[in-house]
Amino acid sequence: MSIDFQPLQTKSLARQIADRIRQSIVAGELGADDRLPGEAQLAEQFGVSRPTIREALKRLAAQHLIRSRRGPAGGTFVNRPNQQQLRDALTGAAIVAVSMGEFDAHDIAEARRELELLCCRLAAVNRCPSDLAAMKAEIAIQRDPELSDEDFCASDVRFHRALVDATDNKMLQLVMFSVIEALQPVINMVVFRVRERDQIVGYHQRIVDALGMGDADAASSALDEQMRYLEGRIAAAQRARQARAEA
After folding, report:
1. Superfamily assignment of 83-246 in CATH?
2. Predicted model pTM
């Protein structure tokens, strides 16, 4: 496959070359498992040295966009999308955004509520016995009165991850991964001192029972109540923090 790459005139050539090739992948000009031109050909097309091409390819490899293979049938190839790598990238970006104050707890809780309501409706139709079993297993863990706050929060994350998995929708699972893995722990850290475990477990049990019966409305109602309960607890935690600051 021949891509009409134009020579570059400015600085940071390796980065620009990597960006150009990345754009070709995003635009579909280069597809999964397509072989890139060799270093010499790329250097000629871009009008740069081979070391500059190697640096550009290193950048693309670091982004998991390409892979290299040795041997007679070797070369540099476009990678197929990897769900775990995409999830890690989304989660990392979300964590950075939260740490920089781009989202507040209310924004996170509101977005999570609306997205998980959609998950409930799909899960009521697409769930399988293993999905229900995973959620029930977490409820059993959460009922343990000796469970630490940290372990309860971790189980809470796993419960909602299982709920998302039950949608059987890969795109929604990808989008929700950052919400469940990166943003939900933020909410847990805010409210774990002011929420009641029994309340959370009760909501979880109602969600599982409704999903088991394929009742999307009941599952959505239970989840909506849980999310609004948490939003109320967030507000309570913030008021308590403000009162301590003013004392």
Report:
1. GntR ligand-binding domain-like (1.20.120.530)
2. 0.64
